[in-house]
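Justification of resources, computational component.

The compute hours requested in this renewal are based largely on the per-chain cost of generating structure records like the one below. Each record pairs the submitted sequence with a full C-alpha cell output. That output is archived, and it is also reused by downstream analysis tasks.
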Amino acid sequence: MTIVSRPSAVSVPAQRSGAAPRLEGYRRFTAAVLHACERDPGARAALRSGLGKDLDAMPRMHRVIAHLVPSAASEDTQRAYYAVAAVIAEQARRRGPAGDDGAEVTVGEVGRADGEEEPRPHPTPSTEGGQDGQDGRPDYGTSLGVSFALAVVGSPGRERQMRRGTAESRLNILCKQGVLGLHRHLPASVRYLRSLDVPVDWARLLQDLVDWREQSGRVKRRWLQDFYRRCQEDARREADRNDNDVQESAGADGDA
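The structure output for this chain reads:
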C-alpha cells in the first residue's frame, strides 16, 4: 500500500524568537561602534575617515575598532566590519552628538566580536530564520530591501511613485555589484536612506556584506523580495483604504 504524506499545517508563533548567533555578534559590534561615536568625537572622526576607502587606506580606523574585528577574519570580512563602522560614524556625525536631540540609538550592553571565526555552513532560511522570526526560527533582522521599501511607503502619496523609482534604481545598482563595487556604492545609498529618516539594521547589513562574495545571490534575492513584498503590502493596504472610503461615502449619500 502506498502511503502519501501530507504537509502539516503551518503554525505561526505569537512571539519572535531571538536573533541568530552570528547576527547577535554583529549587533554587539555595531553597538560598540555607536557607543564609541557617542562618547568620543575623535573616534567618530577616525571612523568616518575610512568612508568609501579601500581597506589599506583607512589607518586611522584601526585604533578604534581593530580590537573588535575577529583576528582570523578574511579580507572580505574585515572590509565589511570597517565599511559598516564608517557609515555608522558618518550618520552619527549627521545626527550630532548623543544628547543633542535624543536621536542617537540607545546602546545597551556593549560587547566585542568573537576573537576568531570558525568555519560555518552556508546559511539557509531554515538556519537563519525569516524576516519575522516565524516558525520558531531565529530573527533574520531587517534587510536593506525593507529599508528601501520604507523610503517609499513612508512618503506622501504624490511623491510615492517618484520615490519608488529612485529606491528601486538604487537597490538594483547595489545588486549588480561585486564586492568592491558594493562597498563603493553603499555609502551614498545609506546616506539617501538616512536623509529620509529610514532606519538601517547595521548588524544585518554587516552580515550581508560579510557573505557577499560567496552568497551574493541569496542576499540579493532577499533584498529584492523584501523590497517588492513590502511595497506590495503597502499598495494593497492603500487600495483597501480607498475601497472603504468609497463604501463609506456611498453609505452616507444613501442615508441622505
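Confidence is low (pLDDT under 50) at residues 1-17, 95-135. The chain is about 60% helix and 0% strand.
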